[in-house]
Amino acid sequence: MAAPLLRFFGKVSRQLTQPWCSCRPFVRHVSSPAAGFAPLQTYSEEEDMMREAVKKYAQERITPFVSQMDENSTMEPEVIRSLFEQGLMGIEINPKYGGTGSSFFSSILVIEELAKVDPSISVLCDIQNTLINTLMVKLGTEEQKEKYLPRLASDMVGGGVFVYPRPALAAMLSSEDADGETRRSVHHQRIKDVDQQRRVRGMLGLAQGCFDHTVPYTKQRVQFGKRIFDFQAMQHQISHVATQLEAARLLTYNAARLREAGRPFIKEACMAKYFSSEVATLTTSKCIEWMGGVGFTKDYPIEKYYRDCKIGTIYEGTTNIQLSTIAKYIGQEYD
Ligand SMILES: Cc1cc2nc3c(=O)[nH]c(=O)nc-3n(C[C@H](O)[C@H](O)[C@H](O)COP(=O)(O)OP(=O)(O)OC[C@H]3O[C@@H](n4cnc5c(N)ncnc54)[C@H](O)[C@@H]3O)c2cc1C
């Protein structure tokens, strides 16, 4: 599938880098026992392997379908099937139910890598793992777990999850299998604390993916006798966005690590959610500007990242609501 897509884009004038292909150099940071206080961007061996495997998988098996899925507004069944095949739809599910048995932090890394390639696919994977599976693991009866977890890990996409603020939090879960057949079985559950966990993820991968596509372009495009990357005004903007991205990553990873350590994380998760979604808005908007006219067109994936980012400041608590929650915690700290 990749070849026809690249051939199609090859006809586009002013094409300086290959659209829809990752351009980021490979950098590896693995934890070492002698590291002492390890930097936040340190991964366990398992996390590192998972991250690298997903990066490769996303490039090879999702990238070829991104443009087509966007054009047709449909998920490619082959992509959904491959997500299951790779064990990415049951990341934290215990292997006794057919899951991958990996960590919450690994799921954050997986979602980040998928979002770099296609934020829509990452949302599908994210909701399945961090909401639907978590809901079932935390609140399902043993009978429900035995019935649904193996399916959720192997061929059933959960959907239709709604969180109501009053009188108690509740969720409704219906499902669709990998071939798109909708199952009408619906569950109602009280979910007092699942809601909190969803916030620890962001628009980080989306913003990074967009940035990774754009910077190489600025290093190739020449205007007024110079690469546009070499104009100081451009460099300052690029550096500013890169710094925001780094800060968003550190906030996100810190919140995820706090959760894994069993420490309070809600304020930090709200900060990560708020900041990452604002950074994604900034990054995608700036990337379009840095690409000039072609950034606005569908010849490059930048405009799709720009469209996809907007939901980040709205769902799972709008930016205002994140800020209100952060303020609530700050208020308590100073009581
Ligand atoms: C694509 C998509 C997927 C979604 N998925 C889900 C899902 O899976 N589960 C689910 O439960 N919901 C989901 N939602 C709903 C989403 O969470 C809500 O749209 C979001 O919480 C905002 O609520 P609202 O649309 O009612 O906006 P409103 O509450 O009407 O807000 C409008 C504006 O007013 C501001 N505002 C409102 N109240 C306050 C306040 N007290 N203080 C300051 N500002 C305020 C908001 O910040 C916002 O800017 C989804 C929405 C979309 C668009």
Question: What do these coordinates show?
Answer:
The chain is mostly helical. A hairpin with a 4-residue loop joins strand 2 and strand 3. Helix 2 runs parallel beside helix 4 and helix 8 packs antiparallel against helix 9. Helices cover 58% and strands 7% of the residues. It folds into two domains: 120 residues, Butyryl-Coa Dehydrogenase, subunit A, domain 1; 135 residues, Butyryl-CoA Dehydrogenase, subunit A, domain 3 (Up-down Bundle). It comes from Ameiurus melas (Black bullhead). Keywords: FAD, Fatty acid metabolism, Flavoprotein, Lipid metabolism, Oxidoreductase. Pfam families: Acyl-CoA_dh_1, Acyl-CoA_dh_N.
Comma- or semicolon-separated keywords:
335 residues, mainly alpha, Butyryl-Coa Dehydrogenase, subunit A, domain 1, Butyryl-CoA Dehydrogenase, subunit A, domain 3, two-stranded antiparallel ribbon, 12 helices, 58% helix, globular
Topology (elements, then pairings):
Layout: H1 2-10, H2 45-72, H3 77-85, H4 104-117, H5 119-139, H6 142-154, E1 156-159, E2 170-177, E3 182-190, H7 194-198, H8 204-220, E4 222-223, E5 226-227, H9 232-260, H10 266-291, H11 302-309, H12 319-333
Antiparallel strand pairs: 1-2, 2-3, 4-5
Bound molecules: flavin-adenine dinucleotide (FAD).
Strand percentage: 5-15%
Question: What oligomeric state is this?
Answer: single chain
What is the typical, i.e. mean, pLDDT? 84
* Tally of helical segments: 12
Rg from alpha-carbon coordinates:
20 Å
Query: In terms of per-residue confidence, which ranges show pLDDT below 50 for 5 or more consecutive residues?
Result: 1-23, 166-172, 182-200
CATH superfamily of the largest domain: Butyryl-CoA Dehydrogenase, subunit A, domain 3
Elements, N to C (H/E) = HHHHHHEEEHHEEHHHH
Reading off the top of the CATH hierarchy, the class of the largest domain is best stated as Mainly Alpha
Euclidean distance between termini CA atoms: 60 Å
What bound compounds does this protein have? flavin-adenine dinucleotide
Name the helicity range. 55-70%
Return the CATH topology of the largest domain.
Answer: Butyryl-CoA Dehydrogenase, subunit A, domain 3
- What is the 3D form? globular
CATH architecture of the largest domain: Up-down Bundle
| Total discrete domains | 2
Helix/strand class: mainly alpha
